[in-house]
Amino acid sequence: MDIFIQQIINGLVLGSIYALVALGYTMVYGILGLINFAHGEVVMIGALTALTAIGVLVPAGLPGPVVVLAGLLIAIPVCMAVGFAIERVAYRPLRNAPRLAPLITAIGMSIVLQQLAMIAWGRNYHTFPALLPALPHRVMGAAITDLQIIIVVTAALLMAALLWLITRTRLGRAMRATAESPSVARLMGVDVDRVIAFTFVLGSALAAVAGVMVAANYSIAHYAMGFMLGLKAFTAAVLGGIGNVGGAMLGGLLLGVIESLGAGYIGDLTGGFLGSHYQDVFAFFVLILVLVFRPSGLMGEKVAERA
Amino acid sequence: MLQVRQLEVHYGGICAVKGIDLDVAPGEKVALIGANGAGKTSTLKAIARMLPASGEVRLDGDDISQAAPHTLVGRGLALVPEGRGVFARLSVRENLEMGAYVRHDSSAIAADIERVFGMLPRLKERAAQTAGTLSGGEQQMLAIGRALMSRPRLLLLDEPSMGLSPIMVDTVFGVIRDVVREGVTLLLVEQNARLALSVCDRGCVMESGRVTLCAPSAELLDNPAVRAAYLGE
């Protein structure tokens, strides 16, 4: 029972991060029908940018949490700029191209960003300094750290703010209208190019936050960290129903919990044959199940209707 | 108000609109009638910059043929597209709010929504429903109401009767009559020539990409060739 609760907590932490990244995939897909495979790299750039900034700020002797927050506040605009540039350089010229072209471009963009990051930050693992209190609280026999609480609460607040933006504001209406029909949205006076650019920038800001969360939670960052994280978050988006913002949130949390529980029990279930390092198997097992049995995802619509 | 000169639209190698001229004076109601494939919808779309086209389109004297499409609604031009184009996943109210996207006078927008609801009570009952759940006729009314939300001076209506039952067509044209009575300038594309001419002052007949005849509605309704070709007599 202790393990169960502990794995649920770990899963929610991990899932909160997946959800933030999945939102970037799903928002772009909702508007452009494009899977932005470079999104995982934006997460990585957020993590490494924040780490670099933190490395500079630590000797200043500021309190740990302030340093981390400062790193985050530097990473966010950097990632927003990267997201904006990706859309401008890689996707906008292909807006009317066959679907395969932007997909291949997305994979290419992912490789380019990863290699650039390798040149900038090197091949080594960067460790996240111990700036945040690590003493765990005991909850029903399980342990939870301040950092984990901060991650879950921050992610929840960001998601609530995003939902408010999308459902309640003029800009959010324009995003939803553009997702349904760019040409009709244009008739209403929506500058579709700007809405699309904004969507990339918004997703990248969330990715920056997720990147710092991952680095802080696992105390490590690396130029290739975005690849697997991106695939997992993409899986979460598909699980929730790609294109659906609520689905990405649900899918992210669910995937995190499934992975954690899987990792916690796989040893017992296989008599020790497979260990918790097989954690990644669960995400892709889920992806296969969803694609086979419910390709539209948990909250996705069957077919996009065109009235 | 609207002057079109030598407008041409090409789809690949096919020339759908072959250099037409068209004028709509302020307050005038003009119907563009013709058979399927005559180029009526392409003409409207080209005017609203939804399609690449060559030639000159002037709105209030300004050449808009190179204007960014999303700037036209701010200049007073609204198009209700063929097939209605309501945002199916947005609520009825949100669709109307999208119609007022370029406006920033929120209290006047709220008043205009009530005005549209007053004109189209069916929409008021369904204000919170998503537009995709409406019937075809209701969607057409919503599309017209949404276009009115921008307070257009020139309204382009594309095939408002398409796919609707005869009773619904009457209802929708009743709405269009109410709208034009308020003085908006109208360019109406419609296959149902009799209905179109009953609303408009003037009609232009399009045949395979060209305007072949423009005349006051009464004259067209009396013209034996038009009667034979478009009024089913």
Please summarize the sheet with the most strands of chain B: 6 strands, mixed
| Terminal CA distance of chain A | 51 Å
Overall body shape of chain B:
globular
How much helix is in the residues of chain B? 25-40%
Taking strands numbered 1, 2, ... along the chain, how are they ordered across the largest sheet of chain B?
6-7-8-3-9-10
Q: What does this protein structure show overall?
A:
The complex is a heterodimer of chains A (307) and B (233). Chain A is mainly α and 307 residues long. Chain A has one domain (13-230). Chain A has eleven helices and four strands. Chain A has a two-stranded antiparallel ribbon with strand order 1-4. In chain A, strands 2-3 form a two-stranded antiparallel ribbon. The radius of gyration of chain A is 19 Å and the shape is globular. Chain A starts with a helix and ends in a 14-residue tail after the last helix. In chain B, β9 (202-207) and β10 form a beta hairpin. Chain B has a single domain, classed as P-loop containing nucleotide triphosphate hydrolases (Rossmann fold, 3-Layer(aba) Sandwich), CATH 3.40.50.300. The longest helix of chain B is centred in the C-terminal third of the chain and has 16 residues, at 166-181. Chain B has helices spanning 40-47, 92-99, 106-119, 121-125, 136-148, 166-181, 193-199, 217-222, 224-230; strands at residues 2-11, 14-24, 29-34, 54-59, 62-63, 77-80, 154-158, 185-189, 202-207, 210-216. Chain B is 36% helix and 27% strand. Classes of the chains: A mainly alpha (307), B alpha/beta (233). The A-B interface holds A 170, 173-174, 176-177, 180-181, 183-192, 305-307 and B 48, 50, 68-74, 78-79, 81, 83-90, 94, 97-99, 101-102, 131-132, 139, 146, 150.
